[in-house]
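Archive entry. Fields below.
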Amino acid sequence: MGRIFTLDLEGNVYSCKYCHTHLALFEDILSKVRFLCKHGEAYLFDKVVNVMVGEKEERNMLTGMHTVVDIFCVGCGSIVGWKYEAAHEESQQYKVGKFILERFQVLGPNTWSHDDGSDVED
Amino acid sequence: MGGVEDDEPASKRMKLACRELKGNPNDSLLSEPSFGSSRDLMARLLQSEEDEVIGSKGVIKKVEFVQIIAKALYSLGYKKSGAHLEEESGIPLHSSAVNMFMHQILDGNWGESVATLHSIGLKDESTVKSASFLILEQKFFELLDGGKVMDALKTLRTEIAHLCASSNQLRELSSNLVSFSHGASVGSSNQVNLRAKSRPKLLQELQELLPPTIMVPERRLEQLVEQALTLQRDACVFHNSLDREISLYTDHQCGRDQIPSRTLQVGTNGEVSLKHKLSGHHKPVSSVSWSSDDGKLLTCGVEESVRCWDVSSGECLHVYEKSGPGLVSCGWSPDGKSIFSGVNDRSICMWDLDGKEVENWKGQRTLRISDLEITRDGKQIMSIFKETAILLFDREAKSERVIEEDQTITSFSLSRDNRYLLVNLVGPEIHLWNIDGDINLVAKYKGHKRTRFVIKSCFGGSEQAFVASGSEDSQVYIWHRGSEELIGKLSGHSGSVNCVSWNPVNPHMLASASDDGTIRIWGLNSHLQQHKKLQQVHSNGGSMAAAYNGRT
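PREDICTED_STRUCTURE:
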């Protein structure tokens, strides 16, 4: 197979639980909002690396209709989360261009120590 | 002689004017400003013709056109034709003053030539000064060569001194006087060392000094034709031939048939055959590097070691490794005496052939996935040192330059003339950067596909006029480097094409390596193939096999 191109991150890294490919840094979590999906917690990231994107989809979430693309680890192809391409509601625009990594799919530091009225989403 | 006739006004009037000017060389030229410039005279006479234009676009001035043709005729040695053209068209090549000037130079009438110089119509005082200097310098040297030292000294003092650009110039000329008289006194003057150049040479130098409106520059017509041919050639996006002949009869335009587009061979059965299998690495081989003489090959096992192989025997000559960190890239120094290698602790190190580490550049110099390139003078080392930046450091001058990109860089390659860098980005997109002097982005190439792999691209073709790249859609992409135009998509592979290599000596041959486990050799779509030696192809095809199927 060809040589898979991956970037190495430094710091508190979240990586793919199957092939350990680096995906994101703890510092890049947008901490204001706490996300929940069917497998548990998920974090919203400013920047995610070493992922491939899938087809655009309209998905109805707790917070409304969004256009998302699923993201897959380049190393092994397993799904690790999604990316928000568009939000149909004004209040959800802040998510556009950002990434969600499902806690269940990645290895890395646990977060969520603060409990100051953070919203629960999706 | 008689009267001036209507159908031949210009030439007859010119002849009259010439006689008038020749009759009073010393006073009328300077004392009658209205007739001071013969160019003005000519301008007035030819007013009706001067505005005449020819050609479909109406931008070519007839007078200029005829003059450069006449000049070309003279340059080719066709003096009679040149003179005839001047007469028949009524357009003299040079104004009468210039003609007179030229004769005066060739005859050695220095004083008169300087005087004529002032009446030729030069607007720039410094040109007059420089030209006068050249003439008088010639006078000086000719006097010296003729043994007339006192006259030479007088010329230097009275005529040349005030024209000298610097005191150095004056001193240099004076030194000639000294050495001359010294030589004479020693009595070794039987060997005459002529200092003065030939008069035609002087005339040529003066011609280059004078503006083109006064004297049509030599070979101007050839220059214009060459410009047109160059433009045609540059505009020809498919131009890929070894021969340099372009005909003047029709505009040059190559067809696609000059670009490789047909698979000549799949796998290693054919003109290109498997020479060696180099076993030894335990990790996948990520990069290879040929020595300048093509006699040795370096291979790098990812985060493992670098091995040096003898190309003809296939024997492993040496293994380079560090105790601890693994090596990630390799490159030969152009003199073949040292080896460079990127290390997974981000440093770059240099070994001598025996394996002794001679240098180590610490700090963030390279990444785990990065190419390593060394310029032909051995001075600059290049590698990807940040996600979006390439480091070019001069190990001699100890200076660094950086190429900053707007997206993640996956790989890059250096042009043969070391003046350009082809950078592959995640996009996918390929950027061409000029690194000679100021660093700047020159071109962008798009169209190919990439999501997961390192896809390599390269320069190729005659004068590296093309850029080729692999693509995850199984095709080889070829762009014309100058125009950024995608001119070819080669289909045939059934898996991602990860690497391409254009034969450096045969512009019609290209090799590609794919996830379908094969190498394909591409050539022209014609049955008339030029037979090329295996060695030349091997220096490229072999390198891809090693790198991409993990096989040794």
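CURATOR_NOTE: DSSP finds 14 helices and 26 strands in chain B.
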